[in-house]
Amino acid sequence: MFFRTVATSSAILVALAVTGAVAGPAWEPEPVTDHLEPATVSTAIGGTSADGGEPGDHEVRESAVTIPLADGLEVAGLLREPVGADGQAGAEDRPGIVFVHGAGTGKAADAFTLAATALASAGITTLVPDKRLDNYSTRHRDYEAMARDYAHSVSYLRGVPGVDPDAVGLYAESEGAWVSPVMMVDDPRLAFQVLVSAPVVPPRQQAAYAVDNYLRNTDVPAGVFRAIPRAVGMKVPGGGFEYADFDVRPWLREQEDPILAVYGTNDASMPLEQGTRELVEAADDVTVRFYDRANHGINVETPDGLLLHPDFAADVAGWLLGLPATASAPPQVAGAQPEQLYLAAPVPQPHWYGDGDWLVGVVITAGGLLVVGPLLVGGAVLTGRLARRRSGRPGARLAPGLRAPLAGLGVGAAATTVALVAYLAVVARLALEYEKDAVVVQGGWLGVRLLGVVTVVAAALLLDRIRDLRGRVVLVPGTDPGVRATAVVSTGFWLTVLGATALLVTLAYWGAYQLGI
Q1: 398: domain range?
Q2: Radius of gyration of the chain (CA)
Q3: Is position 53 within any domain?
Q4: Angle at 223 between CA 220 and CA 225, to 5 degrees
Q5: Which one, of 503, 498, 501, 491, lies nearest residue 375 by Cα?
Q6: What's the pLDDT at 51?
Q7: Where do the H-state alpha helices sit in 78-142?
Q8: pLDDT for 6-53, tens place per residue?
Q9: Maximum Cα interatomic distance, the chain, rounded to a whole number of Å
Q10: S-S: 326 plus which of 47, 59, 300, 388, CB 3.0-4.6 Å?
Q11: Which CATH number covers residue 103?
């Protein structure tokens, strides 16, 4: 009995492992072998003039403004102006910057506060608009439409007294770097763009790269990585996310104005070296700077909390105020040494569950079967017992030796599924917060897989017992009502088995039963 159970369990485990391996793409990112080498550790921008402004040279006047958009809509914004020697803002023509938000809600009162204020104090008029949100959500984003909305902020800034309308440019962070190149092409009058933590590659590629990097930083087991292409590559349940394959590089190739691209070396979400190479290849007059220990927003940890890297604002101001001399001033790439382990690349498409609606449908259906099946079995058995008390005739019931392994299979499949989802959620939180917890990360994965193995043992016990019974899973009474009850019990039994099997296959797809295959 013991050896038969071991053999059957092993066969089921191998079958699930093979099924999981062939059901979807593997994750094998290509390592970066040719690393960038910054010319110098200094981030100072060459070509700056001695009379260029520096952060702190001016007091800053901050004003709340309203920016009209198309169709009668409007957004709020914060205008920051350097105060001149005469105590007046806008006393002379100065360059201006419109800030383009990264992902999220993007309220002017909360975004870019340090950078916009520092640049304004260097003599540059800055405008941070609210992000328009009525046409922006997690599922639906249109970067070309967003570019048209931000263009109204550019027009507004050009009309501010003291701003040189031909010296207005863009400061775009993260997701905003998929928007600003479109703006540059749509409006050739724009003079420059500062790209902060620019992904450059399409969103789906950047997302897969970021997930991979976050998981590596969290020290997850190797088996977890299989989920990356299957999650990022599939069509998301409920639809949407069409923007995931937006490619900004054609717009970068069309624009001709100078670009300053900056990255923090502690930013695990962006392909730092690859993004730099893509920018240099796509556009002319690109200057790149890497800031040591800086994060996605070019902030560093200080005793006073997160603050802008101490050299960042001065470098940006020097580059901007020194244009056009600084546009191509050497060195082109400088700063701290970036470290990118793997390339961001097109994400393999899942073979199974490529449509997320199908995945959700399978899991919900399986869960429903695990509820309906036992209810049918239990209801028929209870009805049979009541009938037996009244008439003395036997009721239909499961054959001996089936109830316990059937319960173990159903409960185990559901519990393993819940455990896997909970584990991935906890790991995602740790990864996003740059935390490590070996007990949770390693122990949790081991716990999920052990729970899965226990479920497979229950399945093996059930399968062996069914073979012993030659497939007759219900005790059959000899009356017509009993035959009908038998059909109900049999149906409930097989529905439970079908629901549990569907969950086991789904668990195998997501890597719970990997055996190095």
Answers
A1: 2-24+354-509
A2: 31
A3: no
A4: 70
A5: 491
A6: 58
A7: 113-121
A8: 899 999 999 999 999 999 899 999 999 999 999 999 999 987 665 568
A9: 107
A10: 47
A11: 3.40.50.1820
Measure CA 275 to chain center: 18
Let me know whether 89 and 227 are in one domain: yes
* Residue-averaged pLDDT of the chain: 90
Burial of 370 per CB tally in 10 Å (0-12, 13-18, 19+): buried
Distance CA 409, CA 411 (A): 6
**pLDDT tens profile 142-155:** 999 999 999 999 99
Is residue 36 in some structural domain?
no
Please tell me the distance from the alpha carbon of residue 440 to that of residue 218, in angstroms, as a whole number. Answer: 10
Are 302 and 284 a contacting pair, CB within 8 Å?
Answer: no
Model-wide pTM > 0.85: yes
Distance CA 225, CA 214 (A): 11
Query: Is the per-residue pLDDT at 476 higher than 80?
Result: no
- Same domain? For 195 and 272 the reply is yes
Strands (E), 162-281: 163-173, 193-196, 259-264
Residues 309 and 385 in one domain: no
Q: Considering the domain boundaries, does residue 43 fall inside one?
A: no
For residue 191, how many C-alpha atoms fall within 13 Å in the half-sphere facing its CB? 22
Is omega for the bond preceding 331 within 30 degrees of 0, making it cis? yes
**Of 166, 52, 182, which is closest to residue 119 (Cα–Cα)?**
52
* Domain identity same for 376 and 469: yes
Domain count, the chain: 2
Tell me: the pLDDT tens digits for 330-379? 999 999 999 999 999 999 989 888 888 999 999 999 999 999 989 988 87
Let me know if residue 347 belongs to a domain: no
pLDDT in tens, 64-120: 999 999 988 999 999 999 997 555 655 578 999 999 999 887 799 999 999 999 999
Q: Are 154 and 187 in contact (CB under 8 A)?
A: yes
